[in-house]
Amino acid sequence: MSALHQLVPAPWSFSAGTGGLTLDAGTTLGADPELGGPRRWLARSLGAATGWDLAPAATADAQVRFLLDPKLDAEAYRLEVGDAVVISAGGPAGAFYAAQTLLQLLGPRAFRQSAVGSIWSVPRVSVEDKPRFGYRGTMLDVARHFMPKDNLLRFIDVMAMHKLNVLHLHLTDDQGWRIQINRYPKLTETGAWRRESSLGSWRAGVFDGRPHGGFYTQDDLREIVAFAAERHITVIPEIDVPGHSQAAIAAYPELGEGQAEGAEPVEVWTRWGINETVLAVSETSLEFYRNVLDEVVEIFPSPWISLGGDEVPLTQWQSSTAARGKAESLGLDDVSGLHSWFVGQLALHLKGHGRATSVWDEIGDGGLPDGALVASWRGYEGGIDALRKGYDVVMCPEHKLYLDHRQADGDDEPVPVGFVTTLQAVYEFDPLPGLSAEGWPGRLLGAQANIWTEHLDSPRRVQFAAFPRLSAISEVFWSNPEGRDYDEFLTRLTGAHLARLEAMGVEYRPLSGPAPWQQRPGVEGWKRDYDAEQLVRN
Ligand code: ACM
């Protein structure tokens, strides 16, 4: 691989010729019929950045040509710049990634939304490229802090620029329910907002006294899904059960285990941390969630729907006669088995809709639903165990790929929580350290960076946490792991890629540390040192 290219993520093969090909207002774009989508996307994106109306033309005559090459994998492409830009791709996804590479070759201004210059030259290069993993994910928590739709669409654009292809959207939690469900309007009337929020770590006991909320209508979500699909990104919705459900219980108290016995009603949770409030393991709550999922599958065509399943304290079930009775009637040793039983019931319902279930790895402790995709967040072990048992796995270990965790050890990091997770550390992430990814009964589909937002209360804060670490991670997910060199990555990052992020308006964390306005003096975090025995979030 030449060290001269400035592409992020790095392509698998790159060679540079001499000189460049100048594009102008008369440039035409042509595509084989199967590749019309990427052609239209390029015409719109490059059209906006240049101010040109990039007309379609017959493929053989166009200056930019998209050709289908069935010998290539669906996500693979070749890009040759000579007297024309010739893209060969195995399918629309490969052609789309080639178009993204072409924009990067045109310079940072190609990522602006209106023209700021007039000379556009593509260097004469030859690129051959393909992804390392089929699942290149980012999880975004829009429950703790809502991300307005426009910002989410822009976030998807920035993901696409990095050739990421899965957005796992964490839509429900104790602190908010963000998806409109027609059958149950109170989920958003009551569940989509809270009175106030913990300010910084919940351990500090400080609240901001300010209501927070928001939700996506079903049409908003359809728009988000379609926008992502045009960029070859699958949106996996997460409806988290049976813990992390207090917003739903606040809206419909009959769902709550603690509510069944006439306790004080709960409100949408205002605090961060692990919550003892859980769903009742009852036919009422199962039926409710089956109805919710019926609407979810209508909106999201994703092959996977996430049922979460993380962090479920047993306290309420242990003290509930109904829950203990249910465990006994199911022949379970104790109430701990209710956790995976409940998720399993809903997974069966999803299976009836032809969908697989994605779960956090806790579910593996009590038995996984058939065909589950396991997101291994409590370290690597849950994922390795699932691979041994024949399940699909995505690695997202908290001590490696949690982007809410602080980026450096300094006190000037805004609300510093978690382990120090530097740019270099994420660049050096290995999804299966010391082990081969091949030869397991299960399949390692890829990996995912997780962006939890308890302490990221605005799109600006999400951008600060995500970038440039997500740029480094995209290279782990996409590029050849052989010969990876952090210093060489830094030359591309500082030489071109940060300027692309700036052109897109991404307020990333400067490599030298947070700008004064990115700091949050006085807001307490919760710094941890990595200890494999003590993996408790927040
Ligand atoms: C998680 O971090 N609770 C999945």
Q: What separation lies between the terminal Cα atoms? A: 42 Å
Question: How much is the radius of gyration in Å?
Answer: 24 Å
Describe the main β-sheet briefly: 8 strands, parallel, barrel
Mean pLDDT, rounded to whole units?
A: 96
- Structural class of the helices, strands and pairings? alpha/beta
User: What compounds are bound to the protein?
Assistant: acetamide
From the spread of the alpha carbons, the general shape counts as globular
Give the neighbour order of strands across the main sheet.
Answer: 8-9-14-15-16-17-18-20
Tally of individual helices: 17
Low-confidence stretches: none
Write up this protein:
This protein has 17 helices and 21 strands. With 538 residues, the chain is α/β, with parallel strands linked by helices. The chain has an 8-stranded parallel β-barrel, surrounded by 6 helices. A 7-stranded mixed beta sheet has the order 1-7-5-6-4-2-3, covered by helices on one side. The mean pLDDT is 96. Acetamide (ACM) binds at residues 310-311, 360, 377, 537.
